[in-house]
């Protein structure tokens, strides 16, 4: 009788395996549609926020109290006011048509302000009111800073996990970038209108991504989370009424723009804003560069210069440099309150990059140990 090494699977077990496989595929499909829906909604809110500033000018902020869109509490005789002019909204009849009070969700201000900005602004206002009760914090404007830090920690906690996931996939992408560039360069000799060559290039790259579990668009997921958070913080910090009255440490008026103050009144107070910028700008620059430096520390081979200007790695580095420069410029054009917020945000980013660096090192160490064990087993 002829022996056979073929294992026959009973039909009931085969059916169970097929069922599990189908369930896994269905779950991935539903997860994909959920992500597409969430990211589409996120993109819609991002676009809404941008275009609302032009289409609905009454949603724009103004540095002067009683002008533009302001978020605060209703006056005491009308609602839950505080009796403090810094926290209570002004009267429409007194302030005139240029003033728009924002104290509750309403469709007048659209979904972005009502659904996303309002909850954060409400918490921020109550935090400021709580810390405002302490005389030592009230006198120096530190009640605003303490409230900012709490909001910042919450926002960064929300975005940390997507940032970590994006960093992991970026790490893998960098390690495979030379091979990806080699595949792309094979098709450079073909004309850009050659559809057949473009299709083959796409298929080859897709196969490589699938084989090595690469997700080049993972960074976009981070964009769809971080950008709305950035826009929410921008609105909250600029429209909350108490900030317009706050002078931090009796030196920096949080409602003023550093660039304007430096040029308009340099001798009196402008030089103090220049000092502030000289502290904030290097910190922002360092926070932008930290992730690159740490990545090079994990992989010394990445320190070499990218000669091929058509390579994806070179393009990514160029985009990073442009973004760093743009963020540095923003420090001058934002209000002082936003500049200070993003100073603390930059400090937090540095520590976050160090934490992610340690996580990636630990992950790399575990992968190296696994490969070593497999090598010893001859696998």
UniProtKB/TrEMBL annotation:
Record has Transmembrane as a keyword: yes
Main subcellular localisation: membrane
Residues of the Membrane insertase YidC/Oxa/ALB C-terminal domain: 146-357
Membrane-spanning intervals of the chain: 30-51, 107-131, 143-164, 322-344
Pfam families: 60KD_IMP (PF02096)
Example of a GO biological process term: protein insertion into membrane
One example GO MF annotation: membrane insertase activity
UniProt keywords, alphabetically: Membrane, Transmembrane, Transmembrane helix
GO CC, one annotated term: plasma membrane
Annotated membrane topology: Multi-pass membrane protein
Protein family: Belongs to the OXA1/ALB3/YidC family.
Protein name listed in UniProt: 60Kd inner membrane protein
